[in-house]
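Friendly challenge for the regulars: who can give me the structure tokens for this chain first? No prize, just bragging rights.
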Amino acid sequence: MNRRGITLIELLAVIAVMSILLALATINFRNWSARQRVESQVREMYAEIMSIRQQAMVTGNNYDFRFTGGVNMAFRRYTSDESRGGATPALFQKNLQFPVVANPANPVEFNHRGLTVGSTLICVFTNENPSRDALVITPARISMGKIRVQGSQDATACTKNNIDLK
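First reply, four minutes later:
Bragging rights claimed.
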């Protein structure tokens, strides 16, 4: 039998398969996009923190940053003569898309040599399961990591034992 063309049923079957594949691709793209936004925020915070650490070493001034309201980062510079808790205005502020939890919640200070005192953990809790959603700041190093268990999504879940360094 010599057939030319396709039947209506074959055409509908192809359209149905393509629709299902398109729906799956859209869902995967949305999930990927949400994970990328979280990872982008963590990478941007890492870059900003590394930048002020480097500025502290180059200029010989002390720098600090703190989180205000969980959705803003404020960066300050002060000399060793100025009070850390004083009214030194912020150099710049950065708005964050996702709220963060810092443990401990104190400002992170870099001295004139770019070193901090103690360790600070910064966690971005979301349901998106990104590959990087935490920063670990130690006296001489800043690392990115992944939160193992989201848990209570507060300072009690933002612990060094709950973060895998990347």
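The chain has one domain: 8-165. Helices lie at 8-59. Your move, everyone else.
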